[in-house]
Amino acid sequence: MNHLSEEELIEHYYGESGRKAGIDAHLRACGTCSRAYEALSRDLAGIPQVAPPARDAAYGDQVWQSLRNSLPVYSAPASKWRRLTPLRILAFATACALILAAAFIAGRQWERRREPTLAGNTPQARERVVLFVLGDHLERSERLLVELKNADDSGTIAAPLRSEAQDLLTANRLYRASATQAGDPVLAAALDHLERALVEVANGPDDLSNADLARIQKEMNTDGLLFEVRVLRSRVQAQQQGGTTRSKGVSI
Amino acid sequence: MRTDDHSILRAILAGDKEAYGTLVARHSQSVFRVAFRVTGNEEDAEEVVQEAFLKGYQRLPGFESRSDFGTWIYRIAVNCSLDLVKARKVEADYRVADDADPKEMEVQVADTSAGPDRLLLSREIGARQKAAMKRLTPTEQAAFILRHMEDRSTEEIAATLGIAPNAAKQAVFRAVQKLRTGLAELRVNS
Question: Which residue from A16, A53, A74 is facing B13, i.e. has the nearest CB?
């Protein structure tokens, strides 16, 4: 039989034991624990309940009188509008501004996340953009070549034509490099051919002679180049319309 | 007519300071009783009563209306008493350090109870109990007083002292053990 610990006996003495009946039964059966409990009870009973000095009925009032002058008066809660001090209004306005700013930033972030999904994130959308830009470039190049072909009557290359050639040249370099990277040799070769013609025109003198023009047309094979560009442009247009029938060549 | 504590509290917070007097009158006896038991001194108990009601008034805006004001002010009073006991203990430690060690004190007590007179024995028991009580930590002392004299449950002691129920139970156990050890010699002699 396990004896009761002092802690259990103390708990039992103060009536806080969770198993009162079991402990009572044990104390009846176990002489050791019974003697220990008697000793504990005797000791605790010997500690007197300290009786405080009596205080009469007026004691509470005396305490209150000694306190009342040092206590402030609580002010009744003000109405909601009266509570709006300038500082609170400022804090409220600041909070509103912060909320608006946060909402604006969150909106911007949301738009940014959403935009690529709609326009540029999907391969189809990206391809549409590429085809559109490349188509536009080829169209402008074709116009330039046509003007160049018909320039034999004037004998000079007009400044706007040269400026257009310079503009197209920059874009053409990018497209050519992209076509090479994308593994489209046909497009890359055609753009390379176009680039050489654009270089000649862009860097040519203002007073280009008929002989110079004839040389450029011959060397660059302007007719052939124009044909090439037209073929490419029609291919791009077909892809723009077809959508899904894209070839490897325009995946810049 | 305002009768319950909560109505009075609402009135006080609405600006009726005088209503606090009713609460002070209603609870000052129980606050004094526990303050006296913990501090063991009438003057200290008076000081605790004033401090407890003052703190109670200052903390009224934070008082949760679900709680019972009597229990709340009682807890404040116990903690004020505990703080005072701790402060007194620090002072006493400085003084006792120059007096004598516990062994020496036992000898001194034994000398005074040399006679067979019952009154002397009773005085010695009282002195021993006081000495044993002083050896308790303030928390043990408060826990024991709340348990033994104020008849508070372990949960109530824990809530009053702001400690876990198990810590409150252990504080009572340790207090009882220390008190019994302090009185053991007398028990053998008697």
Answer: A74
